[in-house]
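new request in #modeling-help
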Amino acid sequence: MPKPFTPKVVTANALLEGDVIYQSTTGWTRDLAQAEVLTDPAHADLREIEAAAQTSHVVGVYLADVALEGTTPVPVHFREAFRAKGPSNYAHGKQEQF
Amino acid sequence: MYHYTDFDAAFLKERNAQFRAQVERRIDGSLTEDEFKPLRLMNGLYLQLHAYMLRVAIPYGTLNSRQMDQLAMIADKYDKGYGHFTTRQNIQYNWPELRDVPDMLDALAEVNMHAIQTSGNTIRNVTADHFAGAAADEVADPRPVAELIRQWSTDHPEFQFLPRKFKVAVTGSAADRAVIKAHDIGLRIVKQGDEIGYEVIIGGGLGRTPMIGKVLYDFVPQADLLPTLEAIVSVYNLLGRRDNKYKARIKITVHENGIQDIRARVEDRLKLIRPQFGGIDQQMLARIEADFAAPTFLKGYLEPYHNAYAQDPVFRSWADTNLSAHRNPDYAIVSISLKAHGKTPGDATSRQMRLMAALAKRYGHDELRISHEQNVILPHVHKGDVPSVYYALKAEGLGTANIGLISDIIACPGMDYCALATARSIPIAQEIATRFEALKLEHDIGPLKIKISGCINACGHHHVGHIGILGLDRAGVENYQITLGGDGTEDAQIGERAGPGFSADQIVPAIERIVAAYLALRTDPSETFLTAYRRLGLAPFKAALYPEAQANAA
């Protein structure tokens, strides 16, 4: 039996700031909570390809696993948790904003 | 201190203008990321987890006050008011924006600094003993030859696309403070009679396959050094494996082919290229050596030092820990700890940078050094001025008396910043330091080097830590492996893996158990951790680390 598909978001870094960004239904967001959650593998691949084509805005596009708390995506892996929050030694990065 | 020539300044200006245009072409869409990435890496610009990171070379770890002030200015203007000093004597800015980087590079060029070859498969920043030019045990100052190697290797047309990165370190002392045996090439200045030459060690390195370097030559005369280096890198460039990234470093080339085979190849190559070195490099070295002439040491009163030492126990503790013997008996080498308990190892705020610059200017013959152990050194301070330096440092959080002790921890940035990391390093270092500070044990424990890496690449030198910690990702959870008995000095040794790893909340208690075992087992307080480990071996420490395994076996 195939493994169930883990929901995903499309993520990357912004070209100019280098900041972590996520694809939303209307463009890009810096807040994981606003990201578009992809539950269908074929649709996820398509959205990743669309994102990767935007080479003058984003760098390093990939699909990251998320879990859902209600309808809100949260990171599965600790690496994605740090990307979504910022470093643990200073209150810099996203934790300053969100 | 090396002074840039017109040629150096013009070269850097042109290079920075080229990179500015490359950034503009990336932003306007003319360059794709695939095209731009090698260009930015050649100029020290990485894209990390949360932001870009600019890695700036501090050649052989030497700075003057003007340069340190400029690093502080850059931290304030383009970053978040601090910088991170690394194990390769670089400074990293963790938060620059792409548009600002060309301006940052221009600001660096104003003070004869750059970020060239701080990344990529090239010869990286040449590192040296941080006590160079000051140490009491030195044969000769290693910095002139390090500068010569920097000039030779910068933009060297043959060596811009090596199989993998290539790191060179130089020391001028028998006591190795530059970890030369864990470098692709390690050089030690030695004397044969009155003649100065170099012991050449190759094939050392940490990372996935840690290896201690092997002696290629006991003695290479000064005039033959650059041709010999060129021959070595040239042999590696052709022979080094490009089919497998993990086997591409020279340590594997040496290991697979054997040191004798490599020596024969180097000698063949040397015969071919030696005539091309007509002595100009030696003329350049002579000019560079003049730039590194020792300062004019002052005669002065030593009473302020003796009085402070007699009257202030806090000063005494710091002086006993953070001062080292200078070749002039009236002077001291001051190590400034960037390891205040609970702070990030190697980080300095712009305020702290400015203070260190001001102290160097006023009391330190305008010289500063960055150590591979992520501290800052004032190499030439008259002992009479040491109390003034100490009280000023203390007021800015720079007076921690822990050099060489358990809280003087090397830690790579780990997963808090690094895109390659598999686990965090910084919080582990912070917790260990805070814990042993609370126990008030670290001066009793004595010399003990803990080194932490957040991935197998070993930027935190964990293999040569007396206690090494390696952070890994085990099924989506941070896990920390311990190695014991490593040593990065002239007696270099790769640590032994102690056993299964520990979770993030179990690693500090595990370290405590090792230290408690050492305190119980040492013959007396003069037997250091490393000496005790060498006497006793892994077994008693392993028993302390894994008490449940002992219980099960019983």
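bot summary: Residues 3 and 291 of chain B are 7 Å apart (CA to CA).
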